[in-house]
Amino acid sequence: MRRSVKALALLLALLCFIIPVASCSDDGDASALQADYGSYGADIARELATLYPYRPAYSAEEAQAGEYIRSKFEELGYEVSRQDFTNLYGGTSSNYIVTVSGKGFVTMDEYGNPNETRRTIIIGAHYDDSFSASQVDPSYGYDGISDNASGIGCLLTIAKNISSYENLAFDVIIVAFGAGNDNYAGARAFVSSLTEEVSSSIDCMYCIDSIYGGDKVYASAGYNSLNMSQKYQMRRKLYQAYDVTYESLLYTQYGFSLYYNESGVITDLNGDSFDDIYREVSANKSDYVPFDEMNIPIVYFDSGDYFFNTMEEMKDSKNLNLQEFGGMVRGTPLDSMQTLDTFLVSEEGDQLQIRINCVSYIILESMTKGSDYALTYEEYDDLQ
Hints:
Blueprint: H1 2-16, H2 40-51, H3 60-75, E1 81-86, E2 92-100, E3 105-108, E4 114-117, E5 120-126, H4 145-161, E6 171-177, H5 185-193, H6 196-201, E7 202-208, E8 216-220, H7 231-247, H8 250-254, E9 258-259, E10 265-267, E11 276-278, H9 289-293, E12 298-304, H10 337-344, E13 345-346, E14 349-350, H11 351-367, E15 375-376, H12 377-382
Parallel strand pairs: 5-6, 5-7, 7-12, 8-9
Antiparallel strand pairs: 1-2, 2-6, 3-4, 3-15, 8-12, 10-11, 13-14
Helix pairs in contact: 2-4, 2-11, 4-11, 7-11
């Protein structure tokens, strides 16, 4: 009888998690400044862009950039796994992978007995960029600071600060993807290497790409959330990211807002010949795509401006100083510290540092929200 009651209590507790709830960090200090990570991530992004500005997929500089990222993970005390892969033309690139083991979760069997289960979070960003030295006028100072040195700065900020979350239940895999600009080749190689056990344990994939150059930072779900039968299931992690932003008062502290894509344009987004509402998803593709195709929940962070009436009008920036390429920054010569640091660093602060720190904090705090499929040990103990 006691086992049946306990199993029922576990079921009710899991159902209650469908309603977003407030959460605080493990530190429990409400007076502490949130996302107070200093300049570490921004310094990494700027150093990567300075040392290896021309790092297109499969290039020598991309390889050097990858080894630089490996060294930064190792400085933080991680063992790094390098996963090499090749394209059809013999080009070689690499993913750099670190794993942080969590405390695990609890599920109940049919007899009411508790069993340990593992749930996984993937956090990824690609480190290659768009141009080689011969493809862009050197006067622009191109270096891919936004797309995607900014994402790598965010990854390393998360890696540096995740140890402060002592009660984190998730196993977390942090991946710097190679060859992101070649149809997300690094992410595809990583996904293809996953065991069925790990694949089935993934609660969410957080993807970070080009968060510096656009006017606003957005969080989006995957295209799998366009399926109405699983819309909420696939967007729940997205909503948790918004919850963290609002609960933590990031705008009050840093002037940072995380935007919904609420444009509402009606168009066929996923090519299935049926119109979709362009809301809470992004037309910008990145390394999340292979995970999206596996029907894994996605939270994708990027920057731009989606506040237009048509898809064709949407661009990265309305800043009058960034209109040479139709308001686009990513994938253009304007993606450089020479340009962006000139126009985006102000008396209000360093936009690169603020965005890297706030996105890192949102991802870290979102993981404390727990899993939809199991209870943390603390949650299970509360049922006793």
